[in-house]
Every structure is written in structure tokens, then in C-alpha cells.
Write the C-alpha cells for this entry.
Amino acid sequence: MSAAVKSAPRRIVASDPTPRPVLRVVAPPRRRGGQAVFVVTCAVLLVGALAAVLWLNTTMAADAFEKHQLEENVADLAEQRAMILERLNDHEAPASLADDARELGMMPGTEITYVRLSDGTTIGQPVAAGQSDDPVEGDGVNTDEMEVLP
């Protein structure tokens, strides 16, 4: 075996030793209730949303009920209007007007008199109803005194 010299590992020595920082144990950060605040906020938002939906649903149901009532009122009023118009049409019929006139003591005229609109003159002799002795002949128009207007 040979006598070889074993070299020892070298140590590196720093010329300027730097001071090591002093380490110490740090306390964990305090919890500020972040999770609890989040849960409470979510619960408040959920309850508020449910209350808003309940209020909206109740309001819509009340409005739907009121709308139904108003539609029924409109239907009733339309029916009353139709009945009133029917009665009015019955009273405006010529036969009904003649019956109403007789009940009031009115009599049909026997002489027909015309008013010329151009100058306001009357054609024919006005006679009070019931005072004429002549029965109405033909259509009751006195053609002798009538003029043909252009």
C-alpha cells in the first residue's frame, strides 16, 4: 500500500462573519370573527330575501283578488248598461212614442203644414189637433200650395 497522503477537507472561513438574526416564536394572529360575521350576514340576507318574496307574493295575491272584483263589477255594469239601452230603444220606438203621447192626452195632427227653410214661410194652414172636421185624405199633403224647390 502506498503511503498516499489523504487530504483533509478544507474549511472555508469567512473573513467577515455576519451576525445571524435572532429568531423568536410569534403568536398566531387573532381571529376577528370573520367566519361568524360572514355566517350572520348570509343569514340576514337570506331572511330578508324570504321576507321580500313573501311580501311580494302577498301583495300580488291581494292585487289579483282586487282585479277579479273589479272585473266582476265591470261585467255587472256592462249588463246593466245593456238592459238600460234595451229599455231606451223600446221607449224610442214609434209605437211606444205614440202610446206615450196618447197617455199624455196628445192627439195626432190632421193637417200637415210645412216650413220653407229658405225664407221661413209656412205652407199650409196650421190647425190645432182635434179641431179639423175633414178627415185626412190620401197622405194629407196639400199639393196646391207646395212649390218645388231647386
User: Anything to note?
Assistant: The CA atoms of residues 72 and 78 lie 10 Å apart.
